[in-house]
């Protein structure tokens, strides 16, 4: 924050105690600037100048990048506070107007020609905002008040900013062919009843087959159709209804094979006496289907082959 100093060089071997003292003082000044910004009207410009002078003196002891960073942060605080002070300034009955100041600055640098200049100009062409600004003119005036080398990085931005317009791209509406539009197919009650009737019929088929068996039968020999994996899955599904209702029992025999057989359906008295239903989840994928056919040498299906089920799509049946 101070003037250029020929003795100011980077010193990685600076005394640690001196570095800590510099950082401590910078943080102390930063707190003072924060207090001034919080209560701008209670502090005068002289107090701000006093703190800036203290920062300039402190800058002479800066020998490392961390301390220089603290100095830069303090410079930003001072600039922000100075701008707020300028806006709060009053000249007569009015406040400091930034727009008016910038307008006069442009005129001073030759961006706009005054009425007096136009009266002395014999040319009929009037120059307005297109005239180049004479920055050296304002630079010479500023050098009388500051010894710092002026650089462009301290500028807030161009005096004339063209506001960018956001381009909004409208999405084209998707035009659908009315002929391709279809209403959702409505599932009617008769469709549900037909599905239930189909399940009931197939469950009865499996029940009749088990009733004609002499005893327990291997689960896989009973449900697997060696020529149709899908119907093997369906057979297991239909068998689960019989087991759920207590008409069919399933257990593991002495050979470790799962077997199923018809049994007497439990009554309400049996459940009241402590009989409990048990559930199990059985995984049956195509690999298990193929392995069971190989292990148990299944060549024919115990359950007759059913015709492919028809699926109703709206008013049409698909086979």
From TrEMBL:
Residues 216-301 form the Non-structural maintenance of chromosome element 4 C-terminal domain. This is Non-structural maintenance of chromosomes element 4. It is found in: Nucleus. InterPro entries: Nse4/EID, Nse4_C, Nse4_Nse3-bd. GO terms for cellular component: nucleus; Smc5-Smc6 complex. Belongs to the NSE4 family. Pfam families: Nse4-Nse3_bdg, Nse4_C. It comes from Amanita muscaria (strain Koide BX008). Component of the SMC5-SMC6 complex, that promotes sister chromatid alignment after DNA damage and facilitates double-stranded DNA breaks (DSBs) repair via homologous recombination between sister chromatids.
């Amino acid at each position: 924050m101070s003037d250029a100093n020929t003795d100011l060089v980077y010193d990685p071997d600076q005394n640690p105690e001196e570095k800590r003292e510099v950082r401590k003082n910078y943080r102390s000044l930063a707190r003072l600037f924060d207090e001034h910004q919080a209560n701008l009207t209670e502090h005068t410009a002289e107090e701000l100048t006093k703190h800036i002078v203290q920062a300039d003196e402190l800058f002479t002891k800066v020998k490392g990048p961390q301390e220089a960073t603290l100095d830069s942060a303090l410079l930003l605080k001072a600039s922000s506070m100075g701008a707020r002070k300028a806006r709060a300034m009053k000249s007569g009955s009015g406040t400091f107007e930034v727009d008016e100041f910038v307008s006069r600055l442009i005129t001073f640098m030759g961006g706009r020609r005054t009425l007096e200049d136009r009266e002395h100009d014999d040319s009929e062409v009037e120059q307005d905002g297109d005239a180049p600004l004479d920055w050296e003119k304002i630079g010479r005036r500023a050098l009388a008040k500051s010894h710092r080398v002026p650089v462009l990085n301290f500028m807030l931005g161009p005096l004339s900013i063209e506001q960018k317009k956001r381009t909004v791209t409208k999405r084209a509406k998707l035009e659908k062919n009315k002929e391709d539009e279809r209403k959702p197919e409505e599932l009617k009650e008769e469709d549900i009843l037909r599905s239930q009737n189909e399940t009931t019929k197939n469950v009865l088929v499996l029940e009749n087959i088990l009733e004609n068996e002499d005893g327990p039968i291997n689960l896989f020999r009973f449900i697997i159709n060696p020529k149709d994996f899908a119907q093997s899955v369906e057979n297991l599904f239909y068998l689960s209804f019989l087991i759920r209702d207590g008409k069919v029992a399933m257990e593991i025999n002495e050979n470790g094979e799962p077997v199923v057989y018809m049994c007497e359906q439990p009554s309400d008295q049996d459940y009241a006496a402590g009989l409990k239903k048990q559930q199990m989840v059985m995984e049956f994928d195509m690999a298990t289907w193929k392995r069971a056919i190989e292990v148990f040498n299944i060549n024919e299906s115990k359950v007759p082959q059913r015709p492919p089920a028809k699926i109703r799509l709206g008013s049409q049946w698909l086979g």
